[in-house]
């Protein structure tokens, strides 16, 4: 007599351990996200310690961004092909070792290499974590809670990085901004080894080599082009060549994916309106969010005289707003209203937060000037991050979970690179023009010039996110996304 098929919950070896697995994945996600800002706080101390120039300083940030941004899609597909458990653990251990190398660096070159290696292993780790979350939680209600927690971590991690970076730099050493990753990575790796099931790989497909080369080199050229624009100019020959090459390679990638038998990124992943709209939201919010962290940090430290620790504490209300909103959005609201209303409203609120920041002046108080913008922005980001992550990964088949998850990180990383370069250029040109036309201000120019630049950058960020809200609202489908609670679980290998 045939044995009855096991229920979906019991067929999934991760089901009973799913909340512990969420803790492990959240720990790994927090490490990757906070690393985007924690090193920024440590840069002045690292520069003083190792003696590198202002021109060289950007490479501590750029080395990580180039490796991480250009390799994410490949990292996601490797997880699909090899298995997510080994890729996740490899990413964790590699990230920890690279962080240890950076913390012990005795020269600028070693620190840059360590940051690039962090990017390489982060590109394995980040998509594997999100795809493991996608494949572990298949029940719609539990999935909402899990994505709420994961989205809250993703949204608040950068702000936590500012606080942690400030504390470590002020009370220990800039090196601990790198060493601290071992505190996250080692327990997460041990937890992954214990909790994650090996699973079966099933049919292995070949890696799309032409597609991999074209998109990896294309994303590298894109991120490098924007980084060069920030430090050199938009009209510099290297900037123009990089951006042109990036466009050509991305177009070539799309054409390749239409023709190959086993594409790196099956276009069905991005052509679905809800997934495409979610990716667009992450890219546009990334543009504005990275700019805010950069310029609001400068404003608080250089204009208002805050210490690194006080600056980190100043961002905490936004982190709490993100965490509260993200969990509520997926558990309570997403099942009632669907992603279109939530994510569009979130982007409108994020734009409003930027408008509030644009009202700041050199004497604004924290409570009446900075805090309202942080709270509004935090609620907006919470409505984008958690529902966006869930919507971007809902409906992905087992073969596409890794690369679909990688797209979330890729578009946010590229958006951040674009935003940092674009808003930094706008800031610089705004300060220059203000200085030239207001020389009568004399010594006040040292404060009023940058203040004018911050306000201009905030207005631009508001406009970009507001236009993005319209685009995302048009792309996303109205109504609730239907999910089959009894669908066969996707084994996470």
In short:
The protein has 493 residues and is mainly alpha-helical. It has 2 domains: 14-207 and 264-475, MFS general substrate transporter like domains (Growth Hormone, Chain: A, Up-down Bundle); 208-262.
Mean pLDDT reading? 84
CATH class categorisation of the largest domain: Mainly Alpha
CATH-defined architecture of the largest domain: Up-down Bundle
CATH superfamily of the largest domain: MFS general substrate transporter like domains
Rough outline? globular
Please indicate the percent range of residues in DSSP E strands (runs of 2 or more). Answer: under 5%
CATH topology name of the largest domain, in short, is: Growth Hormone, Chain: A
Please state the CA-atom Rg, rounded to the nearest Å: 22 Å
Please report the number of helical segments: 17
Estimate percent helicity.
over 70%
Helix and strand run: HHHHHHHHHHHHHHHHH
As residue ranges, the low-confidence spans are 1-10, 484-493
Strand tally is: 0
State the domain count.
Answer: 2
N-to-C CA distance? 30 Å
């Amino acid at each position: 007599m045939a044995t009855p098929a096991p229920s979906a919950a019991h067929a999934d070896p991760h089901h009973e351990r799913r909340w512990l697995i969420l803790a492990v994945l959240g720990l790994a996600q927090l490490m990757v996200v906070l690393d985007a800002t924690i090193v920024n706080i440590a840069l002045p101390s690292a520069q003083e310690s190792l003696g590198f120039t202002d021109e060289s300083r950007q490479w501590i940030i750029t080395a990580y961004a180039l490796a991480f941004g250009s390799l994410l899609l490949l990292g996601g597909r490797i997880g699909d092909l090899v298995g997510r458990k080994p890729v996740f653990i490899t990413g964790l251990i590699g990230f920890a070792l690279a962080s240890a190398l950076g913390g012990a660096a005795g020269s600028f070159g070693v620190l840059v290499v360590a940051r690039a290696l962090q990017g390489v292993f982060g590109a394995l780790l980040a998509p594997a974590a999100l795809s493991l979350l996608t494949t572990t939680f298949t029940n719609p209600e539990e999935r909402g809670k899990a994505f709420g927690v994961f989205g809250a971590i993703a949204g608040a991690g950068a702000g936590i990085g500012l606080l942690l970076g400030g504390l470590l730099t002020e009370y220990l050493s800039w090196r601990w901004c790198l060493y601290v990753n071992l505190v996250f990575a080692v327990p997460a790796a041990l937890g992954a080894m214990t909790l994650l099931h090996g699973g079966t790989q099933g049919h292995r497909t070949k890696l799309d080599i032409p597609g991999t080369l074209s998109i990896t080199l294309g994303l590298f050229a894109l991120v490098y082009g924007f980084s060069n624009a920030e430090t050199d100019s938009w009209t510099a020959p290297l900037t123009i060549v990089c951006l042109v090459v990036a466009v050509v390679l991305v177009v070539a990638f799309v054409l390749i994916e239409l023709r190959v038998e086993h594409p790196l990124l099956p276009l069905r992943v991005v052509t679905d309106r809800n997934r495409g709209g979610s990716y667009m939201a992450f890219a546009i919010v990334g543009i504005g969010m990275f700019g805010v962290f950069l310029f609001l940090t400068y404003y608080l430290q250089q204009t208002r005289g805050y210490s690194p620790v006080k600056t980190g504490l100043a961002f905490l209300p936004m982190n709490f707003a993100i965490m509260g909103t993200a969990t509520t959005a997926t558990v309570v609201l997403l099942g009632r209203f669907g992603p279109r209303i939530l994510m569009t409203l979130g982007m409108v609120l994020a734009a409003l937060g930027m408008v509030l920041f644009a009202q700041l002046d050199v004497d604004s108080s924290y409570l009446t000037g900075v805090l309202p913008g942080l709270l509004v922005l935090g609620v907006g980001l919470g409505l984008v991050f958690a529902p966006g992550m869930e919507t971007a990964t809902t409906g992905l088949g087992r073969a596409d979970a890794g690369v679909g998850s990688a797209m979330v990180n890729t578009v946010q990383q590229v958006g951040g690179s674009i935003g940092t370069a674009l808003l930094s250029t706008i800031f610089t040109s705004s300060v220059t023009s203000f200085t030239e036309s207001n020389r009568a201000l004399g010594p006040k120019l040292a404060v009023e010039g940058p203040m004018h630049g911050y306000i201009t950058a905030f207005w631009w960020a508001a406009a970009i996110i507001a236009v993005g809200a319209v685009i995302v609202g048009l792309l996303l489908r109205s109504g609730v996304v239907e999910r089959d609670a009894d669908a066969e679980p996707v084994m996470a290998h």
